[in-house]
């Protein structure tokens, strides 16, 4: 296993100082060259990577107050989940309890209190960190962002937040997805177009502190619930503030195709012609990507968040065209997300992506899935300049894997640790150069208390809804 040794800093003829050197590692850099550095090392100072290279070179060049010997284990960037409805994380097993009751997920969501949303996000944070994730993105489905934001400092994990449920045509959701909504739920949405416009940008104040673990972007609920005017306003605001716009699009293939039929062209052609595609736009799901859409999306550098489980569902229902691997190979920034992890743990998301890509006829390699779980995910929320790869100037968010696990065969480390390996292969996790997980244990925050609060929250919600 990896181990660290504290060294007394000794002046060494002007040798630069750093806080930590990680050495004797197989570094999966996920940078532009996608290097694998055997017996590699990183120097870290003030939360950032200041040098990457061969162990002998880094150890010779830097005087570090702490040294971590990876013992030949794999080190890779921390995973980022670019799309999770985190306030619903504790609802993972609730659907079976709702069968035959008339109670919907809309009822569950409308019953959430700020305390429930905090409990759900804290439980997710514990599971994320133990699975090698260093951050997650909620798409604007938290009613009380102020209740969730403290989880970042509580457990030392990155969180991206946005404005709650921004839409000016929420009735469209009830028409097409009745199982997801309820009248109490929709009552919490904007009640007018003016209110929807007022919600835009409500979380951008969080970006004033450049070192904060909580960042904000612009979010629209999407799936036909926003008018062209609202989309343009969101896009203009995002461009002005240098952040990303995210919205759901193309979750249900048949509905998406109906919209295209009404337009007379593909959705991507329509949005291109209307000037609505740009590098600060990210679409979530895109379970229908026509052959001609690939070039349009890649040319305009639009981001795409791929939710493999949702795509598998839609492949089974018909009408889906899954081209995520093709998009990735065309240069599109693609991130792999959990959405709501109802059937797999976070650590199994790489396997789910591999299975889904194979089902679409173009299998993704281990390196491609690693990139989509790290740098690609960071890019979809506008964070690729700071996160997602192991290179100088980036934030020091990374995972150290145990060298003694069965998956570590050394033939394809990206496949072995971004697809096959589970959380038990993780030795430690770092966020901003700080160790936050060691040997499976959360080092900041009370994980046991978080689990207990989440269990209590679920029981309370079930009782209020007369479930179970």
What does this structure look like?
This protein is an alpha/beta fold and 468 residues long. The protein has two domains: 124 residues, Urease, subunit C, domain 1; 302 residues, Alpha-Beta Barrel (TIM Barrel). Helix content is 36%, strand content 21%. The chain contains 20 helices and 21 strands. The strands form four sheets. Strands 1, 3, 4, 5, 7, 8, 18, 19, 20 and 21 form a ten-stranded mixed β-sheet that branches. The longest helix has 18 residues. It is globular, with a radius of gyration of 22 Å. About 1% of the residues have low confidence.
Offer a concise description of the structure.
The protein is an alpha/beta fold. It is built from 20 helices and 21 strands. The model is unreliable at about 5-10 (pLDDT under 50).
Sum up the structure in keywords.
468 residues; alpha/beta; Urease, subunit C, domain 1; 2 domains; 10-stranded mixed β-sheet; 5-stranded parallel β-sheet; 20 helices; 36% helix; globular
| Total helical segments | 20
Provide mean pLDDT, rounded. 95
Secondary-structure content class: alpha/beta
Number of distinct beta strands: 21
Strand portion: 15-25%
Report Rg. 22 Å
Write out the CATH superfamily name of the largest domain. Answer: Metal-dependent hydrolases
Largest sheet, in brief, is:
10 strands, mixed
């Amino acid at each position: 296993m990896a181990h660290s040794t504290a060294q007394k800093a000794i002046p060494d003829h002007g040798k630069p100082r750093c806080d930590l050197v990680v050495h004797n590692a197989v570094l999966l850099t996920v940078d532009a060259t996608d290097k694998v550095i055997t017996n590699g090392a990183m120097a870290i100072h003030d939360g950032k990577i200041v040098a990457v290279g061969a162990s002998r070179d880094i150890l010779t060049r830097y005087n570090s107050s702490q040294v971590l010997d990876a013992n030949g284990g794999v080190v890779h960037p921390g995973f980022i989940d670019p799309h999770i409805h985190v306030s619903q994380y504790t609802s993972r097993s609730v659907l079976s309890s709702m069968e035959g009751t008339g109670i919907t997920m809309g009822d569950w969501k409308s019953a959430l209190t700020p305390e429930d949303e905090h409990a759900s996000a804290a439980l997710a944070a514990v599971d994320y960190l133990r699975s090698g994730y260093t951050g997650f993105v909620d798409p604007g489905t938290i009613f009380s962002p102020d209740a969730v934001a403290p989880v970042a400092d509580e457990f030392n994990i990155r969180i991206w937040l946005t404005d709650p449920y921004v839409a000016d045509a929420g009735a469209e959701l009830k028409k097409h997805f009745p199982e997801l909504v309820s009248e109490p739920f929709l009552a919490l949405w904007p009640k007018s177009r003016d209110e929807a416009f007022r919600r835009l940008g409500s979380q951008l104040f969080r970006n004033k502190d450049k070192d904060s673990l909580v960042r904000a972007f612009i979010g629209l609920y999407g799936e036909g619930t926003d008018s062209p005017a609202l989309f343009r306003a969101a896009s203009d605001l995002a461009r002005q503030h240098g952040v990303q716009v995210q919205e759901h699009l193309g979750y249900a293939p048949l509905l998406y195709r109906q919209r295209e039929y009404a337009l007379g062209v593909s959705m991507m052609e329509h949005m291109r012609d209307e000037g609505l595609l740009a590098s600060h736009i990210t679409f979530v799901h895109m379970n229908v990507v026509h052959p001609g859409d690939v070039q349009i999306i890649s040319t305009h550098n639009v981001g795409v968040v791929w939710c493999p489980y949702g795509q598998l569902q839609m492949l089974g229902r018909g009408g889906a065209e899954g081209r995520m691997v093709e998009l990735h190979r065309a240069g599109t920034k693609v991130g792999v997300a959990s959405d709501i992890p109802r059937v797999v743990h976070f650590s199994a998301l790489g396997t789910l992506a591999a299975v889904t890509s194979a089902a679409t006829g173009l299998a993704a390699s281990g390196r491609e899935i690693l990139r989509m779980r790290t740098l690609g995910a960071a890019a979809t929320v506008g964070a690729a300049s700071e996160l997602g790869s192991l290179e100088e100037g980036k934030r020091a968010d990374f995972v150290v894997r145990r060298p003694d696990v069965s998956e570590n065969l050394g033939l394809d480390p990206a496949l072995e640790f971004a697809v096959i390996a589970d959380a038990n292969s993780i030795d430690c996790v770092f966020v901003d150069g700080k160790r936050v997980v060691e040997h499976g244990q959360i080092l900041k925050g009370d994980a046991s208390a978080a689990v207990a609060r989440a269990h209590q929250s679920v029981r309370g919600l079930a009782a209020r809804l007369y479930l179970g």
